[in-house]
Design brief:
Blueprint lengths: L3 E4 L14 E7 L9 E5 L5 E5 L4 E5 L8 E4 L2 E6 L4 E7 L8 E2 L5 E3 L8 E3 L9 H4 L15 E2 L7 E6 L13 E5 L4 E10 L2 E12 L7 E6 L5 E5 L22 E5 L17 H6 L6 H14 L5 H10 L3 H13 L4 H7 L5 H14 L4 H13 L3 H13 L2 H14 L8 H15 L1 H11 L5 H14 L6 H13 L3 H15 L9 H13 L4 H9 L5 H8 L7 H13 L6 H9 L4 H11 L5 H10 L7 H8 L3 H13 L12 H5 L4 H11 L6 H16 L5 H10 L26 H9 L12 E9 L5 E13 L3 E6 L4 E5 L3 E6 L15 H11 L9
Parallel strand pairs: 12-16
Antiparallel strand pairs: 1-2, 2-5, 3-4, 4-7, 5-6, 7-8, 9-10, 10-11, 13-14, 14-15, 15-16, 17-18, 18-19, 20-21, 20-24, 21-22, 22-23
Helix pairs in contact: 3-5, 4-5, 5-7, 7-9, 8-10, 9-10, 9-11, 10-11, 10-12, 11-12, 11-13, 13-15, 14-16, 15-17, 16-17, 17-18, 17-19, 18-19, 19-21, 20-21, 22-23, 22-24, 24-26, 27-29, 27-30, 28-30
Length: 853
């Protein structure tokens, strides 16, 4: 019950609370109606697991225990030990999930409000987030994340309320499938999971329920003791965020629950497992219905009956199948999980027993020399990917000497290079121990830098360079110097230098320890064209580097990545002698990615000549027209010149996207306002005018067939500038794949009036940037509307409505004001030819990429 996690005591078990609830946790956020904490689920390790949605924050405290609070933003999978009151994040990131599915092996799965079936959540994992919307990961040194499960079916999903089905009531083809609720598509789907290294890929292949009833909105599901699936139906045509806390547009009286069975509807005889003797409860661990096994385990955790230990040990050692795993969990529940038992279980024939033994050891950081030696043997020789994945997760939780030794053994083994999860899990373990015990890490690094390991080279070296320079602390710089001397192999040293350049970011810092400066300058003297060394030298205050960089960006034989890095450097530092070269790159015959980099750099220069050159290029801009217009719309003088050119007929009105009108209005200039109104009309039209536009668009769409394949091009030139659908477009606004696209009428209304219902995180920001003095000796402001992509103490990177990424020094940002309107402009459909409108809507309603046939 956000903001609290409540427990209602019921000593006599009459299902009536004995009194007021006990508050176990406080601080779950309430900022968003559709993203609150949810999905409580007991794990097989005895912890209580839960999820928090995407657009809420939290500062979790344990009332009465004097906590400072555990703060995090956005979505994550958390867990809580109700006995010793430990709270921690189990995994972080993902989408706006509701519900947690637990399979027979103890794997946890959550759904997706994007275009995926869901996420396989592993301990210590960091998963994809919409970073600008939901905030960065709590670990700023993560330097990577996991995507959702590889999906081999249609991307058009909103998958919630997952259940891993296992009961004899349904036929064999339904067993072990992940069933997902698809509220937007009004169906319940089944997916087969196939191993993909240590994780899974998903293959949607069954439709359990389908209906055309517009009210059917399944939102929660569970498997019962009778083997049936129980489904909660929101039962409302509206399932978007356009509702209010007061209940506007919500049908509160129509919710319902369905029971889904197979074959004859056999009556179920009720019983109370809590009253059964322990021996009978243990027998339920063999049951074909997963509900019985999970409930029996919960009863054993509540009882802590040590008399069960001998029976459970016998089951563990004499079996290799599911009952062995259930017995291990039950031993943990009954107080029988010890180091002696763990040492033996690490050699069990069932890899899941080995995996969960490692998990349980990590929970309480229980380890001795004998167990440590066994774990290192497993790290070197274990062949099961999920066991190895858990080794990496547990290595992060153990004391540094023990954890790093496991990582080193895994790196030496050469087994995990291509796994989707393990490489980053190993990095996150190392990074934890850097913070936990620097001396232990340095001892480990001395050995690690001497091994032959492709995984060490690809996943560790660059990240280490970034990790020790990002914060510009003296201690970290000294560590950087030591590591730079350790990396004697040329390709390792180059990778480490790449990381240093990333870590230093932008700006300068001349306070570098002599030991580091000496090594870097010596390397630069011997390799004066090394791009990474040039970037590093510039960040450390060597201004002579900029002229060399200016020459190098014009060298077409240099790699694109290196050229773009140097272009970005020159733009961020507004190195005036580079202006002509940057302009030549943009106006010349370079590839689009080089031209886009040059354009982003040119935007930082307060020079009328640049504005005039861009304006001259605008009508011939081709695929970069919107970016050129976006750059011109960022400075008042450039914007006035562009609008005057429109007024004179030199630039077509259609070359200036409606997306830019809000940015132009934010400049509060009468000349700009007059020209905008003259050529585009009012930015905000009346309700009657909007409804007339909706009716006209609706009639056009219904007046003829559309071509979904042709609609791709229309989409790329309109909606795709800010939205992703079926993998096409830019990620600025919400992804459209997971939105309610089936209600075409409501969709047209929202496109016509985008400010009608706007999530706060998509309202956009008006940035005012104070630049260097212009030719008249005055400070000049730039006005840009858009979203923050990355933010640090030294710099802010944001994306404007034209898709341009701009990085500026934080000190230059005079103000950031939330917009009252959506950054999406009104009237997007007004000037669209009828057939293009029909093609666009046909593509938007597609659930898979259309083919050209």
């Amino acid at each position: 019950n956000p903001p609290y996690l409540l427990f209602y005591p019921d000593a006599n078990q009459d299902d009536i609370p004995d009194g007021d609830p006990v508050v176990h946790l406080a601080g779950f956020g309430l900022e968003d109606l559709h993203a609150v904490a949810n999905g409580l689920r007991w794990g097989p390790d005895g912890w209580l697991y839960g999820y928090q949605g995407s657009t809420t924050t939290a500062t979790i405290t344990r009332p009465g225990m004097g906590d400072e609070g555990h703060h995090f933003k956005g979505q994550n999978l958390w867990r809580y030990n109700t006995e010793d009151k430990r709270f921690e994040l189990f995994a972080e990131g993902g989408h706006n999930h509701f519900g947690i599915a637990l399979d027979k092996s103890g794997n946890m799965f959550t759904g997706s409000n994007g275009g995926l079936i869901g996420f396989h959540q592993v301990q210590g994992g960091n998963y994809y987030k919409s970073w600008a919307k939901h905030g960065e990961l709590t670990n700023e040194y993560a330097y990577g994340f996991f995507p959702g499960m590889e999906d081999h079916s249609t991307r058009a999903k909103l998958s919630q309320g997952l259940v891993s089905y296992e009961a004899p009531n349904f036929p064999e083809e339904y067993q072990q499938r992940i069933f997902t609720l698809r509220a937007l598509k009004r169906c319940v789907s089944g997916a087969t999971l196939k191993p993909n290294g240590s994780t899974y890929s998903a293959h949607e292949d069954i439709q359990l329920i389908e209906t055309d009833d517009p009210h059917f909105r399944p939102v929660a599901m569970t498997q019962g003791p009778d083997g049936a699936l129980y489904i909660a139906d929101w039962h409302d045509t509206n399932i978007t965020w356009s509702v209010s806390a007061e209940g506007d547009r919500v049908m509160r009286e129509t919710g319902r629950i369905y029971r889904v069975t197979y074959g004859a509807n056999t009556p179920f005889k009720s019983f109370n497992m809590v009253k059964a003797p322990t021996a009978e409860v243990i027998e339920y661990l063999r049951h074909e219905n997963k509900w019985y096994r999970q409930t029996a385990l919960r009863v054993l955790y509540d009882r802590k009956d040590r008399s069960a230990i001998p029976t459970l040990k016998k089951l563990l050692w004499e079996n290799e199948g599911q009952i062995a795993l259930e017995s291990l969990w039950a031993l943990n529940a009954s107080g029988g999980f010890t180091l002696a038992l763990a040492d033996k279980a690490l050699s069990h024939a069932n890899p899941l027993v080995r995996r969960w033994t490692i998990h349980l050891l990590g929970n309480d950081k229980m380890i001795d020399a004998k167990t440590q030696a066994k774990l290192i043997v497993l790290a070197a020789a274990e062949s099961n990917a999920q066991v190895r994945s858990q080794l990496a997760s547990t290595a992060k939780r153990l004391p540094s000497d023990e954890g790093l030794a496991i990582v080193l053994a895994m790196l030496k083994s050469g087994k995990d290079t291509d796994d989707p999860h393990i490489p980053l899990l190993l990095w996150w373990a190392v990074e934890q121990h850097i913070r936990q015990d620097r001396a232990a890490f340095m001892q480990w690094a001395n050995e690690a830098t001497g091994i032959e390991s492709a995984l060490f080279d690809t996943i560790m070296v660059t990240r280490l360079g970034q990790r020790f320079t990002q914060d510009r602390r003296d201690e970290d710089f000294l560590t950087t110097a030591t590591l730079l001397n350790l990396f004697s192999i040329p390709y390792q040293r180059q990778a480490f230098l790449t990381g240093i350049a990333k870590g230093l970011g932008r700006g300068t810092n001349a306070n570098v320890p002599p030991s580091l400066n000496k090594v870097l300058m010596s390397l630069l003297e011997s390799d004066p064209s090394n791009t990474q060394l040039l970037l590093i030298a510039a960040r450390l205050g060597n201004t002579s580097i900029y002229q060399r960089a200016t020459t190098m960006i014009g060298d077409a034989t240099l790699g694109k990545t290196q050229r773009k890095s140097l272009i970005k450097l020159l733009g961020e530092e507004t190195y005036a002698p580079a202006k002509d070269t940057l302009l030549q790159l943009f106006l010349g015959q370079e590839t689009d990615d080089i031209r886009i980099a040059a354009l982003s750099a040119l935007q930082n220069f307060n020079d009328p000549a640049i504005g005039k050159a861009l304006l001259k290029m605008l009508p011939q801009g081709g695929g970069l027209k919107s970016r050129i217009a976006g750059a011109l719309a960022s400075r008042k003088a450039w914007a006035i010149d562009m609008l005057n050119a429109v007024d004179a007929g030199d630039v077509p009105v259609t070359d200036v996207d409606r997306d830019l009108l809000i940015n132009l209005a934010a400049m509060n200039d009468p000349t700009i306002d007059s020209l905008v109104h003259k050529h585009w009309g009012a930015i905000r039209t009346s309700p009657d005018e909007k409804m007339a536009q909706v009716n006209a668009a609706w009639a056009t769409v219904k007046n003829g067939p559309g071509n979904a394949y042709a609609g791709i091009k229309v989409y790329e030139e309109s909606c795709g500038k800010c939205h992703v659908h079926l993998g096409i477009g830019r990620e600025v606004g919400p992804e459209m794949t997971g939105l309610n696209r089936s209600d075409l009428w409501d969709f047209i209304i929202n496109v016509t009036d985008p400010s009608r219902s706007v999530l706060p995180e998509y309202a956009g920001i008006i940035f005012t940037i104070l630049d260097n003095k212009n030719v008249f000796g005055d400070l000049e402001e730039r006005t840009i509307t858009g979203f923050i992509l990355h933010e640090s103490d030294e710099q802010i990177t944001f994306i404007d409505s034209a898709g341009n990424e701009i990085t500026v020094a934080t000190e230059k940002v005079e103000s950031m004001r939330p917009m009252s309107l959506s950054v999406m402009p009104e009237g997007l459909l007004l000037d669209m030819p009828d057939q293009e409108l029909r093609d666009l809507m046909m593509f938007i309603q597609s659930d898979a990429l259309p083919s050209n046939n």
